[in-house]
Design brief:
elongated; 9 helices
Length: 236
Amino acid sequence: MNRPSTSERVPVTPRGQRTRQKLLKAAEAVFGDKGYERASIADLTRKASVALGTFYVYFPDKQSIFVEVVDELGARLRRLIAESTAACTTRLEVEREGLRAFFQFVRQHPNLYRVVRQAEFVDADCYRRYYDRFAKGYVRGLQQAMDAGEVRRMDPEALAYCLMGIGDFLGMRWVLWEEDMGLERVLDTAMTLLSHGLPPHLQSVPPPPKAAAKPPKPTPPKSKSSPRRPSRGPRS
């Protein structure tokens, strides 16, 4: 069942806001370490160092805080990328700095992949919303780049998901699985790929050479027929 974010329970006092953020931060860690099914509300409050009853002041149940964690992770990631790319002047710069910001976010939130992927089974609408919201801004930026002639005109939503997939797998391989501080070469590789796939004016690729025509099979010589004997006249 789709559970919207519990924004109506956001406290107005600074102390309440800090407590709620402590619960969300604890939930991100516990859901990432133990998984949604094994995690309990007691685990969350213990991690956050708050009383068990305090949890229900901010969230009605475990699923609600899980959905809030996923929604907030998505919002924080989108905000970081927007801030990191604000000064970029070309679409390729946006792509490079956006990837760099994503890697930074994964490094700061190592449970991001685990938490988001659990959402597919905890709340499928929440899972889809995480990607839909990310793609929405991506599509808008790509459409603007297409209108400005920076990017070849193509389906902007399909292109957005292609580029999101590139970032997702690069972050998984070079940040989550095995943190590599030399990520510039990874960015260089990604940009080399994109720079040949995004510009609007590409040299046409020559068609492959046609295979040489096979020589015709030699016609076998006709067999010589034996000379015909002259016909004899009637015998007398």
